[in-house]
Specification:
Blueprint: H1 2-13, E1 24-26, E2 33-35, E3 44-50, E4 56-62, E5 70-74, H2 81-95, E6 98-102, H3 116-132, E7 141-146, H4 150-157, E8 165-169, H5 175-179, H6 193-196, E9 203-209, H7 217-226, E10 229-230, E11 234-236, H8 248-262, E12 274-276, H9 305-308, H10 313-323, H11 325-335, E13 359-361
Parallel strand pairs: 5-6, 5-7, 7-8, 8-9, 9-10, 9-11
Antiparallel strand pairs: 1-2, 3-4, 4-6, 12-13
């Protein structure tokens, strides 16, 4: 029974496009490897990487000269680099990050067959390339996992104590839980994110559509509950499994998160000290559940259920300072210092209001 269920879970997990959406070509003049049938860009490198399991995977690296952070993107099912190419280049541009994406073993022009263990090795190879070839540091890397890609993303994030941040896009609690409403983890399950997410020590942003018929939104909500360092999640009303990038809120929320992470000093013990608060919650976030203290708590009390939670000592002290009028002025001197506001970079949405940010304290 276990072997049968495990096989079913594996079949659900992997649907590489057949045939692949692209081929590899070589520029005759520059000798540069390229992806076919997409606009060629000077700032994009196409690479072949060897994994520790003996497969050769294809990766692409998008350079952004103004970037301080690097996004390592593990894509979802039924997709390969040919289909993700335009999204990757657009995200690099608008989020002002370097971005590496890669095809799992058996996807696109990568060799081998897809499996849980192969995807772990695939992501490790891409991560190693970022460190060795491009000089990226662990504390400047954000792991991004979409759907099945949340599996290798959470697995690696749980083993990187100085990782800067994690973004989970339509994530799964586990492979088996997508198919059956099981309440416990079985040995034959795959991508046991529900057991690994509490081991992730960096800030986590979760994005999920409320009308997702492939991976129910409850997966994202449960994982968010278990995060150590939460960032304001994005529950997209009416969003399904494959269209979240089409919502204006998607890019806006990612930008807000990246800006906050950029301004958050990274400490050697893996904890984050402060974060900037951006704009107020939008209507698409109104499905948020009660949870442990979230890193997106506002300075001023709001009606959000997140604010009703009992907070950590540093927040408790802040609330007490509001009650005592003779301490209020001293408290505000250290808290009410607005940072220098940058202009909104939300160009595709033609610039919303500039982002107001206030420093907050995290205790890891």
């Amino acid at each position: 029974m276990g072997a049968i269920t495990s096989s079913m879970a594996a079949k659900f997990a992997f649907f590489p496009p057949n045939p692949p959406s692209y081929k590899l070509v070589v520029d005759e003049h520059a000798g540069k490897l390229m992806i076919s049938d997409v606009p060629q860009r000077e700032n994009v490198d196409v690479l072949k990487l060897c994994t520790k399991r003996g497969n050769e995977i294809i990766a692409m690296y998008v350079k952004n000269p103004s970037a301080s952070l690097t996004l390592l993107y593990s894509h979802g099912n039924a997709a390969d680099l040919g289909q993700m190419y335009e999204l990757f280049t657009e995200l690099s541009l608008h989020l002002r990050v370097n971005l590496m994406g890669y095809d799992y073993s058996g996807y696109g022009q990568s060799s081998g067959k897809p499996s849980e263990q192969n995807t772990y090795a695939d992501l490790e190879a891409a991560y190693g390339c970022l460190e060795e070839k491009y000089g990226a540091k662990e504390e400047d890397i954000i792991l991004y996992g979409q759907s099945v890609g949340s599996g290798p993303t959470v697995d690696l994030a749980a083993r990187l104590p100085r990782l800067r941040a994690v973004i989970l896009h339509s994530p799964i609690m586990s492979g088996l839980r997508v198919m059956y409403p099981v309440k416990r983890t079985y040995w034959f399950d795959i991508y046991k994110n529900i057991d690994k997410i509490p081991l992730v020590n960096c800030p986590v942003l979760i994005i999920h559509g409320t009308a997702d018929e492939v991976v129910d939104c409850s997966h994202g909500k449960q994982l968010w509950e278990l995060c150590k360092l939460k960032y304001e999640p994005l529950w997209l009303k009416g969003g399904n499994h494959c269209n979240l990038e089409l919502y204006p809120e998607y890019l806006r929320h990612l930008k807000k998160f990246i800006l906050a992470i950029e301004k958050t000093p990274h400490l050697s013990n893996g904890c984050q000290q402060s974060i900037d608060q951006s704009e107020a919650p939008r209507s698409s976030m109104d499905h948020r559940e009660k949870s442990r203290p979230s890193i997106d708590q506002r300075e001023k009390p709001r009606s959000s259920v997140d604010q009703r939670e009992k907070s950590r000592p540093s927040i408790d002290r802040r609330e007490k300072s509001r009650i005592s009028t003779d301490r209020r002025e001293k408290s505000r001197k250290s808290v009410d210092r607005p940072d220098k506001a940058r202009n909104s970079i939300d160009q595709p949405e033609k610039a919303r209001n500039s982002i107001d940010r206030l420093d907050k304290t995290w205790i890891g």
